[in-house]
Structure formats: structure tokens, C-alpha cells
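A reminder from the course coordinator: this example appears on the midterm review sheet, so study it carefully.

Given structure:
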């Protein structure tokens, strides 16, 4: 038999048999699970959660009618004292003419302003109806901080090691590569959020049974479920935000520095210098997204009068859950979208 020759006279290479290509999504899952820093962050997060629950168990205790009665007496004394100060303010000649009493001296104090007699006990009981919702919010914020780091290091490490560039030799479609990475990160963040909220429900039930009261009003479990679900959404969004920032700057440490600069400097400056922008800050909208009923933000609209004196005026703005979700979603979409667009178009030098 004759052997087929190539145009230069050498034997042609045998055709490689067609077979199924390895799954890019499966490869990304394996890559994500193999990163030791991500595993370390998740372990530290779990340890921190358990430590916080143990610490909380030392701050709450069941109470007795005698202790509650003494706390009620302390509360009543504080209310009387505060209202006495208010009466002195109202009778002062310094009260401006035409200014409502509540605007200058504050409203009349009531027991509800101080949170009830439980706040006047050294170790108050754990109340599932109120502490359960507050704990779900705290868990969502803590888990979001962890997943921000996870999202940042998941892509930052690939830029530092240049493994992202090497990956494109196997899968040159850049948008498909980014879609796989984002899908794996979002799924992992959602799982972390679900585990954190589920762990808190168990911990809250234990604390209520051993350190307080498990009585809840009608509709409580629906409110807790909604708060937990929105908390999971916040965890996913912050993970994608960490990914997006690190992808833009191509470095994990730089993305953490950018996050610190924004939360520690930019937001603080906005609250002090441009209070009307406060409803659009990331932190306020994160609280509005997760917190049951949204979040209230005070906007200072003060001005300097003709004499140069600052007249403090303002209003309270209620940020709904929807408002918080839309603002955070728009921010994450802009950051991640810009990073993906640049990745698809620019040279990877």
C-alpha cells in the first residue's frame, strides 16, 4: 500500500479523533475549589461565626419578674429626667420665635425611645422576635465581607500568576471564560449566604431557648425568611463586586485598597460634605436591601443665613428594599460589565 504524503513529501499526521471537549464550567469549579486562600477565608468565616455565637451566649440571660421590675423603675426614672430637661429647654428665653417645640427641644420622651426595660438589664434576654432579625442582618453583612475577599482573590490571583492568559490558549472565547467564572463565583457566594443564614436560624433558636424568649408575633418567620433571602442576594452582589474591582485593577491587594478607600474615606466625606448624596451610598443601600422594611437615612439640608450662622434643617428619607437592590445591582453591573468589556477588547500584556 502507498502512504499518503504531504505537499513537502512527509507522511501526513493522522487525524485526531473527535471527542467531547472538557467542560469550562467544570474546570472553573475545580479551579475555584483548589484555591487555598479561598478555602482559608471560608474556614475563618465559619470560625468567626461560631465565635460570635458563643460570645453572644455570654451577653444574654433569662430574667425574672423582680429584675424586670427594677429595670422598669430605672427606665421610668430616665424618662422623667429627659422630660425635665425638655421642660427647661421649652422655658428658656433662647427658644426662637416661630420654631416648633419638637424641632428645637425634641419630642417628649417615652419608654419606647429607650427600647423597653430589657435595655436596662445587665444581661438582657435574647428576644427572637427582634434579635433574630437583627442577627440575620449582621450575618449578611459579615458574610458579604468574606465573599468580597473571595471574589477579589478568585480573579486577582489569576492575574498575578498569569494563569488567566494561559487559560485563553485552551478557551479563546473571552466572554465565555468570564461568564463561567462569574457563574461559579455567584453560585459559591449564594451557597455561603444560604449556609450562613441557615446557621443563624439554628443559633437564634438555641439562644432563644436557653437565653431568652422564643415567642414571636404572627408573620415573623416570613419576615425572617425575607431578610435572609435578601441577605443572600447581598452576599452574591458583594462577591461579584469584589471580583469586578480586582478584575479592573488586575490585583487583589489593589482591589482591597480601593474598597478601604471607598468605605473609609469616600463615604465618610459624602456624609459630612454632601449629605444629599447619602441615599446613593453603597453602605446605606446594603442596609436598605437587607433590613426588614428598608432603612431610614437623615439628609441634612442646612444652610448659612445672612449672618453667617448655620441653620440646620433636614429630612428623613426611607430607602426601600427595592431601592437598595436596584442601586447595588446597578453598581455591580457597571463595575463587572466594564471589566468584562475591557477584558474582551484590550491586549493582555
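Designed residues:
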Amino acid at each position: 500500500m502507498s502512504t499518503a504524503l504531504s505537499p513537502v513529501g512527509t507522511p501526513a499526521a493522522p487525524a485526531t479523533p473527535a471527542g467531547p471537549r472538557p467542560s469550562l464550567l467544570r474546570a472553573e469549579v475545580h479551579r475555584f475549589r483548589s484555591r487555598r486562600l479561598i478555602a482559608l477565608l471560608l474556614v475563618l468565616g465559619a470560625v468567626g461565626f461560631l465565635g460570635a455565637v458563643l460570645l453572644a451566649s455570654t451577653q444574654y440571660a433569662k430574667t425574672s419578674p423582680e429584675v424586670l421590675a427594677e429595670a422598669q423603675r430605672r427606665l421610668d426614672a430616665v424618662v422623667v429626667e429627659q422630660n425635665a430637661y425638655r421642660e427647661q429647654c421649652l422655658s428658656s428665653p433662647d427658644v426662637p420665635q416661630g420654631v416648633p417645640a419638637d424641632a428645637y427641644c425634641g419630642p417628649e420622651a417615652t419608654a419606647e425611645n429607650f427600647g423597653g426595660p430589657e435595655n436596662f438589664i445587665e444581661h438582657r434576654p435574647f428576644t427572637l422576635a427582634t434579635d433574630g432579625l437583627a442577627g440575620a442582618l449582621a450575618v449578611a453583612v459579615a458574610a458579604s465581607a468574606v465573599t468580597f475577599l473571595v471574589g477579589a482573590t478568585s480573579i486577582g490571583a489569576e492575574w498575578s500568576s498569569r494563569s488567566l492568559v494561559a487559560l485563553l490558549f485552551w478557551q479563546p472565547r473571552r466572554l465565555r471564560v468570564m461568564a463561567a467564572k462569574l457563574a461559579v463565583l455567584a453560585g459559591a457566594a449564594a451557597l455561603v449566604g444560604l449556609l450562613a443564614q441557615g446557621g443563624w436560624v439554628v443559633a437564634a433558636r438555641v439562644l432563644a431557648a436557653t437565653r431568652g424568649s422564643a415567642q414571636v408575633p404572627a408573620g415573623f418567620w416570613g419576615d425572617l425568611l425575607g431578610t435572609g433571602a435578601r441577605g443572600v442576594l447581598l452576599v452574591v452582589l458583594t462577591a461579584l463586586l469584589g471580583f469586578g474591582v480586582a478584575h479592573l485593577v488586575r490585583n487583589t491587594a489593589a482591589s482591597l485598597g480601593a474598597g478601604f478607600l471607598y468605605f473609609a474615606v469616600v463615604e465618610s466625606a459624602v456624609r459630612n460634605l454632601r449629605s444629599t448624596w447619602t441615599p446613593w451610598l453603597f453602605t446605606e443601600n446594603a442596609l436598605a436591601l437587607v433590613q426588614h422594611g428598608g432603612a431610614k437615612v437623615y439628609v441634612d439640608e442646612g444652610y448659612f443665613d445672612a449672618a453667617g450662622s448655620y441653620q440646620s434643617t433636614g429630612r428623613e428619607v426611607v430607602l426601600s428594599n427595592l431601592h437598595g437592590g436596584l442601586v447595588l445591582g446597578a453598581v455591580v453591573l457597571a463595575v463587572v460589565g466594564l471589566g468584562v468589556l475591557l477584558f474582551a477588547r484590550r491586549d493582555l500584556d
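The CA atoms of residues 208 and 214 lie 5 Å apart. The radius of gyration is 28 Å.
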